[in-house]
Structure formats: C-alpha cells, structure tokens
Amino acid sequence: MKNAKLRIGLIAITSLGMMWGSVSAFAAEKRCTAGGQKVECPTVTEAEAKAAAAAFLKEGDDMEVGKGGSTYGIAPFDYLTGVGKRSNSDTKTYKTDSGYGEKTGAGLRTELWDRVKAPASDGVTDKSVYDQWTNNWSPKFGNTLVAGADPNQGKTYYYSYCIACHGWLMHGDGPNAAELNPRPRTLTRGEYMQKKTNLELFTVIKGGGEAVSLSSSMPNWGNVLQDQDIWNVIAFIRAMQDVKPPASVAEYLNPKSTFKPIKGDVDALNAASNKDFKEAQELVESDMSGRAPGSELAGGGYVKGGNRLDAADVKLRVK
Amino acid sequence: MQGKFKFLMASALSASCLMLGAANAADKPEVIPGWQVAVPDGKDTPLHDPMILYSSGGVDGKMAIIGIPSFKTYRHVDCGVDTHEISFGGSNKGNKNGTPDGKYVYLNDKGANTICEFDLQTGYLARIIALPFPFGVHHIAMSTDGKNIFATGEYSGKMAKVDIKSGKTEVIDWGPSPSAPDYIDATRNGKYVFAGNYYHSTVGVFSTSPFKLIKEIPVGKNPHGTDINPESTMVAVADKLSATMTIIDVDKLAVKKVIPTCAGPLHNVMDVYNKNGGSYRAGIDSPDGLTSKYIYESCFVADANVKVSYAKLEVVDEIPTHYRTGHISISPDNSYVMALNKFSTGLFSPTGIIFPVNFELWDAREKSPTYGKTLKIMPVDGEPHNAKGLMAYLIKDWTKGQAEQGGLLTGRTDLLDPPHRAYSKRYFIPKENTPPGVKLVDGVKEIHMKAFSYGYIPRQVRVNKGDKVRLFATNIDKASGITKNPDVTMGLTIYGPYGQRSNMDLPRGVTSVHEFTADIAGEYEIFCTHFCGPLHLEMRAAFFVDDPKKGPSNLAVGDYAEAQKLPGLLEEGQITIAERVKGL
To answer: Are B114 and B183 found together in one domain?
Structure first.
C-alpha cells in the first residue's frame, strides 16, 4: 500500500464491515418487551458472539507480536532503539528536539504529530477516522433525536463504557457478549428500539437490568455517569438506529438513523417535569451506591465539566 | 579506631561529592557514561546509585526501593493491601518529588483505607494512620509545612485533611453523587488544594484553612493527574478521555489553556531547578524560589510520554514508551524520566498467569547523545502506582560508623507488622459459567461476579451482617478492552475492613474464590487492583453489608467506627492506630 494512511483507513473500514456482516440473524429469545408486547430479543446468535470474541482475541495476539494494523502498529522489539511508532509514510517534517517527529530514512511520525497536524480530508484519511481514541471520535452529528441531549458527547462514553458488551457498532457483539446470558441487546435494531421509550432506556442505563426486572448482566451506570451523560448516550444510540454497514468512510461518518422521536416521550429537556420519570428515578436512586441521604452526597445533580452541557444549553436541535 | 573512622568519613564525603557532581551534570554537554558504569565511589563497590526511587507497589501492598539509574531493586517493605500514592515528608515545594527532609515517606493504601509511614533512615514501616469510614482513599498530597496530608476519598466523594502527628482527620463532602475525587496536589504556598473528580469532570479548588471547597473548574472528560508547578502558578490536568492537558491559572482559578497532547493522558511530572538554574539538591539548596521548564505527561493509549514547555504551553516532543504508561516519575536531578508502564506486552519471559508491569527509564538530558532513548527497562512486581525519587545522600550510610556514634533513633519507634492478607480462604477453580448474582447455598451467600473492561457485573451486591460469603470472580475479558493488550490481568478488592479478605487476582481463564464472613456493616466500594486499561479507575462496584437492625447500608449507615479498627492489624478490642498514636 502506497499510503499508510489509506491502509489504516481501510483496516478500520474492513474490520467494521466484518463485524457488521456477522449480524445477519438474531436469536429468537421471547423475554423482551417493546411497546408493551413480548418480542424476540434483538441479540446476536451464540456462534456470532463467539466469532466476535475470537476476532478480538486474535487482535490481542497480533498485538503481542506487533503485527501491522494492531493498535498503532507497535513492534515490541523497538525498545532498545527508542524508535517511535510508525504511523505513516511521512511527506512532511515536524521538527522536534529528539527527532522522533522528523522524517528519517524510514519516514517516522508518531501518533501525536499526526493528530495535532490533522491529515487533510481526502475521503479516506479523514482525521476523525484516524483518531479513534480522542474526543474527536467519529462520526460527528449536526443535530439530535433527543431534545437537550448531544450524541457527540454520548459517543465518547459509549465507546468507553458500552463497547465491551454491546460492540463497536452497537450490534450486541462486543468481545464479552459470548460470556453473557442473556446476551447484550443489538441497539441498532429499529423494529425493537423504535418501541423502547426514552424513559425505559434511561432507567435501564441508570439503574441496570435489575431496575427493570431484567438480568444483572446489564450493570447500573448511575454511579458512573451523571444524568446528562446518560441522556447524551441515549442520543447517540438513537442516532445509530438501523444504520447500515458503511461501504465508505463517508457513510461511516454520516450515519442515517431511522429513529423518529416517540410522541409524549420524556427527553432531557422535559425530564425534570415528568412525573413518571421522577418516580422511576427516585426508585433507582434509593438503591444506588455512593449516596448518603440527607447530605451533600445525594445523586442526580448536574455539574458542568467534561464538555457536558446542561440540557437547556445543548444547541443541537431535533430535526 | 579514631583514624579509621576519619578515613571512613572522608571517603563517604568524597563519595557524596562525586554523586552530587553527577547529579549536577545535567546541563553540561559531556559524554554520559552508560548506566552500568554508574558512579565510582573510590572503593571496590561496583555500583553506587546517586538517587533512589521509592515505588508504591500497588496490589502487592509493598514499597519497592530501586536505584536510579541502575534500575536494580534493593528491597521491598510491607505496607498493607493496595498502595497508591507516595509522598516524602518535609515539604511539597519543588516538583512532585517535593523537598524531602529525609525522615519519612508516606504511602496511602487504597485497599485498607490507611496511610503507611515509613522511616527512611531505618527502612522500616513506622506507623499506620487509619482513615475514617466511609472514605476510600485514592491519593494523597503533602502540605507545604509538612504537617498535614490532604487525601481524596474516591469511594465516597469525600476529601480529608489529615494531621500527620495525631492521625486526626477533617473530612468534608464533595457532592453531588456520583463523585470520585482522584488525583490531588497542594500549592507550594500552602493556600490551595486542587483535586480532580473523574465523575464530575472537574477540578475542585479547596482552601487549606478552613478546609473547604471554593469552586469547581470544568476540565476535559474524566480528569486524571492534577499537578501543580513549583512556582504554584499553573495546574496541569490530564484530561484522560479528551486527549488534552488543561492548564489552570492558579491566580485566576480559571482555565488558562487547553493543549492537545495525546491519546489517554494520565499523569504529569515536571522538572525542577534551584535559584541558580541548576537542578535542585534537597538539603543543600533553598526550597524556595524553585522553578520548572517542562511538564512530562504520560499517554496511556498512545504509548508515549509527551514533553510540554511551560514557556510555550505546547507540546515540544514525544517519546515512545513500552507500553501503556500510567504514572510517570522524574529523577531528582532532572536527568531521567521514568515511565511506569502498565503493560509489558511481548517484552519478558512468562513467569505465571500474572504478568509483570515494567519501569522504563529514558534519558531526559537534552544535550546527551542518548536524549529521548530508553536506557533501562525492568520488569516490576506488583502493580506500582506512583514512584518518587530521592537523592541517595539523604539516607545515612550506617556502615560508616554512625551507628556506634548513636542517633539512629531519637525515641521510641514502633515496628508494626502490616495488616496482612488474612481472614479469608482463597483458591482458584476452573473458569465457571454461573450467571452473575447472589444466591444462598448451604447457608453461604455465594456471590458470582464477572469482571470486564471496564466494570463488574453485578455492579452492586448486598449481603447481611454476619453472612458467610463465598465470592466467585471471573475475568471475562479476551484482551484489555479498548487497547487490546493480551497480557491483561484484573483484580477485585473490597476496600476497608474487607481489603485484606478480598484482594483477588483475576487472571484470564480461571475463577478466583475467596471465603470470609461479612461481619462489619456498611457500604464498601469494590475496585480493580490491576491496571487493565484507560478506564481501569472507573472499574468499580459496591459491596453492601446490611445490618437488619439499622436498615440498608449506605454512606451514612454502617459500622464505620468499627471498620476503622483495622481487623488483622490489631487484636480484638484494641484501639485504632490513630488513637494509639494520640496516646503516645
């Protein structure tokens, strides 16, 4: 491959495609409820979950021997030389004191310099594809499907906390899915998710499976995330409904969700005045760790920080 | 006899001078000898390290003492369950190594909720300060006058000011929940304490007297290291999930600049210079007016350390590390930066199902021909959190006649055994597939937990006071979550009175089982003790022991006075260490 940036871009796309392709069939569990009716749970099959776990295991093994494409392409043998990671074939020179960022015979550039000096967008090597582990994580959303919530903020937490089970593309095929029974839900499946209200999603994320009489395999996140963070995660999930496998970087960066806001549903803007929401959250809070009733350490508050905005200040609008 | 003593003193003095000479060589464009040449002391000693690294060993509950730059381990000293930050007594002036007086070094124990005090001159554990409950100490910072230690209560959302002499603590709430104060530093003028809060994604500013929260400054997502420069003008915050460094202006108590640094920034250290521009020499140079040129930040995900210029407030260099640097340390003479790496993927020979982490020493001397190169990398036992450097001349050489001259001890020194891992039966079984949850089997509460990157299921567990507990924990990871390192180990420790009884290692492929009695009520946080990835810190759960007479436990309801008595350290009915110290 002439251009290493292109190579990395293609690796990203290929692995996304492979994971996507494995979700052709869903398991026929009947214990799920959507829109008040019993439906099949949207999950991957056992074989698919195992394949996803094996693929992840292989990525780890590849990394141990420094195979290209595995996490920045680090080779474990370079510690004696102090030579930096090879992230692409350099065409520019960034001068540094140590020379690591400069072009040498082998053309070395490191992760940082690629990120600070953003690669030009050529359709494949867009910065947001390249930077998989930054606050610029792709894709970027210009609007929202949940009033008062920002999917761009939510995706960072999704990729940090949720992927291990729900998978990079929300198919319920994270590396741990095979170890869980019931398996994690496929969060992109529109015919199921469209019937799940924001109230239900919020309660299950904040209080865990047990809060809605489901499995404790879904942990509660209310002692990790503030309420607004949870709303942002919901906005990200809504923004990915029925999104098809990306055939190009452009598609990957511009997911087209089929989600239509449910009439009368609670959202980040009106939650404070919604009676059902308040009742459900009081119940969840009463059993939550990290709380000292009657003190400053009560839960559910809002603190500005981490680029988190108060629902009223979120500028993204519902289309 | 007298003549021999004089000779010994003279050689000791010349050795010290040579060491100081080496320490001050940082700015000279000379050919630097390899680490193995080290510094000759005029005798037949093959190696004398001019500096010593004191390392808080994490899950092995020990402090390691390592030579700089030989990178050879001298010894380990026991402390407790899961040690974290390390801080020299004296003053916090200067950089993170402080301006030590050479008397004591303090380690906080996350597992036991204590602070261990080591006597640097005897090399023994001298005292354990039992912190109150609920607290869940994460990190400590020395005060400017050396009289107090400030501590963050990660597992309760609280902050503490500890009087070192009496062990008495002043505890305040930092709400609302979820609240997790993590890394802390105190300004060198004694005025403020700055602490990150990774659930709030803010840095809290506290006045030291009265000890209270003044304001919260929003920073990037899930802030990690929060470190103040020697001049006390700027705070560098590692915004873990935002890939930036937030610089806070101490005078204005506001964000001065946000610098893009690297993926997964975790910690900062800075170099330190005396008034004349030379490296700071503890005990020789004035601790006042110290300055700094560079911040070195560890980048966990990027496998690098970046160098940020204070003058430019931008990244000026990036040094690759091997791999996944967590904490970062600098030698007292500014010559070396030590990356405390959390993964050693592919680097060392296998020695069992727990994998070694490593320390990597790279040359930070800009004029050295090996600048930026890794000079040494060593496998390390336990899972060290932070490490701090000390000039070796601060430790007396008891072979040179001083012992006979007296002065080793000036008063009674308690020699305490650490609260060893005890009061539980522990074993591994083949990996089990029981669904997560609690069930009653033959009168025993069996808790089945799964550990993954980055969390536990179930996230909350409730048992009743007096229950016999059989805790099964299984690591279901294939490789470390986001970063995919295959050499991942997890841990599970219930802090406080259950610290010694849990403290589980969770290698892949097996299930760890510990049996103990839940005899102290309260809410005790469960946390991961092996660094398993960038969200390791957030890998937590809660263990509730409910007393039917008091109702469900929470941070306000529990046997918290009882918990502070450190079962395992003292015989039943004895007073706590903190109270015992008061009575001395």
So the answer is: yes
Q: Where are the beta strands (DSSP E) in B189-292?
A: 192-197, 202-208, 211-218, 223-228, 234-239, 244-249, 254-260, 265-270
Confidence of residue B410 (pLDDT cuts 50, 70, 90): low
Total domains present in chain B:
2
For residues B438 and B470, membership in a common domain is answered with yes
ipTM of this complex: 0.85
Q: Which of the pair, A78 or A177, is modelled with greater confidence?
A: A177
Q: Are residues B434 and B393 in the same domain?
A: no
Q: Which two tokens stand for residue B270?
A: 């800075």
Q: In this structure, is residue B221 part of a structural domain?
A: yes
Residue B97 pLDDT class (50, 70, 90 cuts): very high
Q: How many CB atoms neighbour CB A189 within 10 A?
A: 21
Neighbour count for residue A289 (Cβ, 10 Å): 27
Question: What CATH code is carried by the domain that includes residue B322?
Answer: 2.130.10.10
Biggest CA–CA distance in chain A, Å, is 67
User: Which range of residues forms the domain containing residue B447?
Assistant: 425-553
Question: Measured between beta carbons, which residues in chain A are less than 8 angstroms from residue B223?
Answer: 306
| Chain A residues with beta carbon closer than 8 angstroms to that of B220 | 135, 306-307
Single residue among B375, B405, B435 that ends a domain in this structure: B405
pLDDT at B406: 64
In angstroms, how far is CA A34 from the centroid of its own chain?
23
| CB B451, CB B539: distance < 8 Å | yes
- Does B464 reside within a domain? yes
How far apart are alpha carbons B12 and A76 in whole angstroms?
Answer: 42
Q: What is the mean pLDDT of chain A?
A: 74
Window from A215-219, A238-242, B249-253 with minimum mean pLDDT? A215-219
Does residue B385 contact residue B58 with C-beta atoms inside 8 Å? yes
Per-residue confidence band for A16, with pLDDT thresholds at 50, 70 and 90: very low
| Cβ–Cβ gap A301/B452 under 8 Å | no
Q: Average pLDDT, stretch B192-201?
A: 97
Q: Are residues B380 and B465 in the same domain?
A: no
Would you say residue B27 lies in a domain? no
Instruction: Check if A213 contacts B (Cβ < 8 Å).
Output: no
What percentage of residues in chain B have a pLDDT greater than 90?
61
Q: What structural domains does chain A harbor?
A: 4-56+134-290+299-313 (1.10.760.10)
Residues of A in contact with B459 (CB under 8 A): 208, 216, 219-220, 223, 289
Q: Degrees (nearest 5) of the Cα angle B433, B436, B438? A: 120
For residue B169, pLDDT over 80 is answered with yes
- Which tokens sit at B262? 């690297």
Say yes or no for a CB contact (<8 Å) between B318 and A159.
no
- Shared-domain flag, residues B362 and B433: no
Q: Which residues of B touch A313 (CB under 8 A)?
A: none
| Cross-chain CB nearest to A301 (options B176, B221, B459) | B176
Whether residue B414 lies inside any domain: the answer is no
